[in-house]
């Protein structure tokens, strides 16, 4: 697998433990960057990644699993979906700890936070995939995300990604 220099720079930054914003056009390998970072943590540094990935339903149900299986070196990742009406299943999946990556949508995340914020003490990394869905600081999603981050000091590293960094309308 060959990486572009900008992808290598992103991975190096992430490996330093820095919070990062990744603004790349669609198809430029944002998911690949994150998977490479988590792979290095797990396989080379022997650190459990325990990453919570928050994205749209399409992103968590198609893009992430597809990228994991597309590249042989990522097939070792265990992932779970935290999505759907049954919160008991999602809570059990989190408590089991039988995953490296947990995939969820913002709406499911908020329901889980409201029901039991301590569930998230298992996670060390938070990745917001398609951060433009969080709009501005006055939006409900942004306020809930801020509440999560304040209430979860154990989330040590945060990454926001988007393929559409420019707003769709006038500022």
Integer-rounded radius of gyration:
15 Å
Counting H and I runs of at least 4 residues, what is the number of helices? 6
Beta content comes to: 15-25%
- Indicate the mean pLDDT: 88
Shape: globular
**Main β sheet profile:** 6 strands, parallel
- Element-by-element helix/strand order: HEHEHEHEHEHE
User: Roughly how much helix do the residues carry, as a percent range?
Assistant: 40-55%
Oligomer: single chain
Strand pairing plus helix content: what structural class? alpha/beta
Residue windows where pLDDT falls under 50 for at least 5 positions: none
Strands ordered across the widest β-sheet: 1-6-5-2-4-3
Distance between the termini: 40 Å
How many strand elements?
A: 6
Give your account of this protein's structure.
The protein is built from six helices and six strands, in the order αβαβαβαβαβαβ. β3, α4 and β4 form a beta-alpha-beta unit. The protein starts with a helix and ends in a 9-residue tail after the last strand. By secondary structure, it is an alpha/beta fold. α1 packs across α2. A six-stranded parallel beta sheet has the order 1-6-5-2-4-3, sandwiched between helices.
Please describe the structure with a list of short key phrases separated by commas or semicolons.
globular, alpha/beta, 42% helix, 171 residues, single chain, 6-stranded parallel beta sheet, 6 helices
């Amino acid at each position: 697998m060959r990486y572009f220099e900008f992808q290598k720079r992103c991975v190096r930054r992430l490996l330093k433990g820095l919070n990062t914003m990744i603004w790349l056009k669609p198809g430029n390998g944002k998911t690949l960057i994150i998977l490479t970072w988590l792979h290095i943590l797990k396989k080379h540094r022997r650190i459990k990644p325990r990453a919570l990935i928050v994205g749209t339903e399409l992103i968590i149900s198609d893009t992430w699993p597809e990228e994991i299986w597309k590249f042989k070196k990522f097939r070792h990742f265990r992932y779970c979906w935290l999505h759907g009406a049954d919160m008991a299943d999602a809570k059990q999946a989190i408590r089991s700890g039988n995953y490296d990556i947990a995939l969820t949508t913002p709406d499911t995340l908020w329901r889980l936070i409201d029901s039991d914020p301590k569930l998230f003490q298992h996670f060390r990394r938070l990745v917001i995939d398609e951060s433009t869905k969080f709009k501005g600081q006055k939006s409900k999603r942004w306020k809930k995300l801020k509440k999560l981050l304040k209430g979860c000091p154990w989330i040590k590293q945060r990454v926001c990604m988007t393929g559409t960094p420019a707003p769709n309308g006038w500022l």
